[in-house]
């Protein structure tokens, strides 16, 4: 299939169960909108390239604005470029129920990551317009800016700005893949540093947040379920460990008289692969980046820097894993006469999902005849940032083969529409009482 003949809408509709178009929710409309967005930034591999703060992201947002207005929403854009559609409801002075995600992508990504969260929330608003449902509380739908972070090697930029978590001074030091500064790039799409500074809003304005997202894993596929309930979002903690030994000649230094930093680091990497499952079944640890110095074929490595990505959905068990990994590094370094230094380079707290919110999602799934299934999110999402301050929930949609950030990323339309129905019932159930961190 060539780029010119790519038609995501028809692919989605080819095996769609049309009986799921009900209660104002339209699978056909969802497929049409996914199809339109898929053509913005379409790559030669039939993937998607809509980097944060690009004209492609802006074009996708313009479509979101149009569809929000079609659903009868008041639309505004904040200083960070987040697009916000609002339905006042019967009591516009109450804190809002918020839902959404993002429309930017990685450089050659898929057509569901992020996008399905924004369009699912839009489908709820559109269904209310078609059925005449009037919510008690305001609903806001958000298309967050630059979640993926491929432009400045960061991410979650829009949700951090809305929650008041942006380190604007640090952002101003960053340059993109073309060597352009943060300020230069955002000016191109009509944004400013001053606008970013003013994008934060009182957390008390938001009662709760809920996000639909593709799973990006295989658990739901193995369970043969269309969607699942997220129990928590694993906050990433990055450690930089430096193993220092003694560089030497590879030929003239006996094996019994070496301080080989890479041998010690190799033992460490092997050993930590067994640690997470000893602590918690949702914990993971990954070494994806190592630096070897002096990195010569005939030189014994004198220094190795290892970066470890450590995640879990609970703060206490994540800390247990961090401690175990550091202890392992210390023990191995001592046994190989290697000097070790450890440094934290990134730390985002995990976000456990409140049980009361999980229970609401369970009830919604049972009402639709779907077996409730609980699973953690190992990846970060806008819900991770919002959830630091506001009660937040997530619904995962089944991913084919667990593939994501790839043109082969796929979720069946029938699965997506079932998630929309769950989202709709969940948001409607939130109209009856206030959600707080205490209840």
Automatic annotation (TrEMBL):
<keyword id="KW-0479">Metal-binding</keyword>
<comment type="subunit">
    <text>Homodimer.</text>
</comment>
<feature type="domain" description="Peptidase M20 dimerisation">
    <location>
        <begin position="235"/>
        <end position="335"/>
    </location>
</feature>
<dbReference type="GO" id="GO:0016787">
    <property type="term" value="F:hydrolase activity"/>
</dbReference>
<dbReference type="InterPro" id="IPR011650">
    <property type="entry name" value="Peptidase_M20_dimer"/>
</dbReference>
<comment type="similarity">
    <text>Belongs to the peptidase M20 family.</text>
</comment>
<keyword id="KW-0464">Manganese</keyword>
<dbReference type="Pfam" id="PF07687">
    <property type="entry name" value="M20_dimer"/>
</dbReference>
<dbReference type="InterPro" id="IPR002933">
    <property type="entry name" value="Peptidase_M20"/>
</dbReference>
<dbReference type="InterPro" id="IPR036264">
    <property type="entry name" value="Bact_exopeptidase_dim_dom"/>
</dbReference>
<dbReference type="Pfam" id="PF01546">
    <property type="entry name" value="Peptidase_M20"/>
</dbReference>
<dbReference type="InterPro" id="IPR010158">
    <property type="entry name" value="Amidase_Cbmase"/>
</dbReference>
<keyword id="KW-0378">Hydrolase</keyword>
<protein>
    <submittedName>
        <fullName>Zn-dependent hydrolase</fullName>
    </submittedName>
</protein>
């Amino acid at each position: 299939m060539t780029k010119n003949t790519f038609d995501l809408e028809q692919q989605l509709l080819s095996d769609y169960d049309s009986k799921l178009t009900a209660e104002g929710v339209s699978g056909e409309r969802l497929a049409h909108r996914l199809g339109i967005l898929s053509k913005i930034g379409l790559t030669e591999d039939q993937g998607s390239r809509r980097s944060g703060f690009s004209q492609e992201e802006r074009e996708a947002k313009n479509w979101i604005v149009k569809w929000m207005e079609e659903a009868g929403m008041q639309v505004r854009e904040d200083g960070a470029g987040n697009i916000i559609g609002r339905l006042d409801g019967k009591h516009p002075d109450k804190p809002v129920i918020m839902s959404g995600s993002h429309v930017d992508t990685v450089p050659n990504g898929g057509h569901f990551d992020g996008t399905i969260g924004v369009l699912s929330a839009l489908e709820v608003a559109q269904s209310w317009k078609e059925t005449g449902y009037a919510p008690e509380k305001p609903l806001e739908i958000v298309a967050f800016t630059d979640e993926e972070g491929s432009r400045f090697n960061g991410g979650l930029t829009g949700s951090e700005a809305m929650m008041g978590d942006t380190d604007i001074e640090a952002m101003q030091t960053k340059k993109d893949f073309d060597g352009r500064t943060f300020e230069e790039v955002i000016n191109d799409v009509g944004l400013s540093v001053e606008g970013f500074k003013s994008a934060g809003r009182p957390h008390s304005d938001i009662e709760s947040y809920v996000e639909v997202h593709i799973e990006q894993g295989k658990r739901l596929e193995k369970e043969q379920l269309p969607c699942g309930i997220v129990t928590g979002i694993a906050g990433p903690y990055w450690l930089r460990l430096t193993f220092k030994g003694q560089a030497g000649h590879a030929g003239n230094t006996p094996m019994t008289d070496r301080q080989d930093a890479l041998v010690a680091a190799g033992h460490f990497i092997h050993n930590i692969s067994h640690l997470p499952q000893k602590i918690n079944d949702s914990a993971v640890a990954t070494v994806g980046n190592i630096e070897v110095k002096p990195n010569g074929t005939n030189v014994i490595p004198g220094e190795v820097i290892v970066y470890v990505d450590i995640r879990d959905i609970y703060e206490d068990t994540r800390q247990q894993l961090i401690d175990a990994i550091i202890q392992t590094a210390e023990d191995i370094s001592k046994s190989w006469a290697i000097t070790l230094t450890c440094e934290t380079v990134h730390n985002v707290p995990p976000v456990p999902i409140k049980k009361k919110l999980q229970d609401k999602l369970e009830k919604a799934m049972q009402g639709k005849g779907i077996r409730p299934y609980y699973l953690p999110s190992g990846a970060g999402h806008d819900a991770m940032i919002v959830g630091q301050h506001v009660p937040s929930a997530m619904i995962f949609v089944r991913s084919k083969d667990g593939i994501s950030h790839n043109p082969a990323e796929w979720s069946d339309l029938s699965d997506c529409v079932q998630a929309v129905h769950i989202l709709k019932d969940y948001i409607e159930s939130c109209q009856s009482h206030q959600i707080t961190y205490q209840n």
